[in-house]
Amino acid sequence: MKETILILEQAFKAIALGEATIPPRTSISIPRNDGWVGIMPAYLPGLDAISTKIVSVFAKNQTRNLPTIMATIVLNDPETGEVLAIMDGSFVTAMRTGGLGGLAARLLSRKDSETVGIFGAGVQARTQLLGLTEVRNIKRVFVYDPIAERAEQYAHEMTNKLGIQVERSPSPSQTLKGSDIIVTVSTSKEPLFDGALLEPGTHLNAFGNFKPTERELDDETIRKSKIVVDLKEAALAEAGDLIIPMKKHVITSDGIYAELGEIVIGKKPGRTGSGEITLFKSVGLGIQDCATAALAFRRAKEEGLGTKVDMK
Question: How buried is 152 (Cβ within 10 angstroms: 0-12 exposed, 13-18 middle, 19+ buried)?
Fold first, then answer.
């Protein structure tokens, strides 16, 4: 996870300096199955990496004993176009999302942050917590999920894995109480909590929803937050957490303070006061997959992992 955070920092620096190519995501919705499939290409010259990810999000998979998010990533040689690797993208997606949460928290949360509140108890929630523990001295975690058994399992697993106190929260309001960092990684289509209950100095990482007609955060949360996004163009096209309040004139596009890369390169400061409520809203970029997949490919070659396949 530490390596993932570092390589994502390089990727966002490249975005801010105009050194990355990120075509808009192409997607298809499948309403009858509550599903979505996206195609995400990207090119990072600095890492000599080009990738394409095909990712699906099917919310009903929770009841089918299948992952909500599944993906495949293809890496190509930027010199010849040859396919270098085909890899499972689900774990890469989880790692890059958790690593991005860690990077955002390092730049935007209070340095003395110790308590985390998490909404959602799936795979993403696990790597989000791994990312946070790399950048902050996390001592206590509350997890809320409408399926109590999932939250209990998460709490037990992550307590044993990290050696910190992780416990199931009984309600959304209790999850907010005393939490220095809030993470939303749910499949909810409606706001998860009352933003009026957010305490001064809280940082939020919002990762769960990326559809323009759905959201995890309410108007009050958006109104009172200093908003940072992964890429403004993508956020204005896809982030219902921002698009819906904009349509209601809660904020305008000028209410987005910065892109994360601008903070990475020092063009804009991150947190400027201990009482600020900061929000990082991510819709996910192919460049994150490109950087993380390139790291995984390099490590696999170094350690002699993977299977060589003759595709000719």
Answer: middle
